[in-house]
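hey so u asked for the seq, here:
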Amino acid sequence: MIFHIRLENVSLYQAWLRAAYSQPGAKGLYRVKVDPAPREGMVIDEVLIFEYPLPEAAMSFMSALGPDLQSACRELNVLAILPEPAATFVMVRFVSWLVRFFKGCQDQGEPGNSWKADDTAVWPDQHQMEVAREQNADESLYVFNLNKYRSVARYENNGSLKKQVSGQKAYDLYARAAGFELLRRGAFPVYGGKPLCFLVGGEEGVLADRWDKFIFVRYPRRRDLFYIIESDEFHRGECHRDAGLERSVVLMASGAQIDKSA
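ran it, structure tokens below
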């Protein structure tokens, strides 16, 4: 389950975290602090990712601890996903190591800041990028992606491909181009899956929409993202993301720790 949290009471939240991480059958995977740059009206302080062996375990967790979390939050949304096999991410990490060993990239100087999205329905908007650049560029970065594919890819230039392809296949073309640039800098997806249903929150919110894919990517340093989006290889793949996605929610975040003393 993916928890999207806007805090009300920090001390109650810290107490909930300690209880949640010790709950049998629940595995806390990631906790990140979201950059203060709202996306489509979403004002989120933190994102948590918890995994459960069975749906019954997830429901038991929410029954036992959900009310306490609600009390700690000004706003709470919970999205259930079917995760990809853990072996997938182990393999991706290994491939990243191989790519870095043979084709690693040592970027020099400061990354540029000329990149700007043509379509902010599927990319971070300008305010998000400005806020992201204000953070510590040498700290790790997590990028949260919720994707909704077009049924048929929409290219501005119909000659981009010889035949029509699905939105997902177009996005896959983008992922190949951008993915290599990620891997050679030690960045890669650490979690992902298929969104199943919206469990908690307002039905009018963006997270209640139907989504096709959740992808959670870790970059060793924020500056690695900026190097990537300024690269020629990345620019060559951008058109495929624009064509393949109908909509996307992109959030940028940094790692967070539990305050043991709270």
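Residues 55-72 form the longest helix (18 residues). The chain has a mean pLDDT of 90.
lmk if thats what u needed
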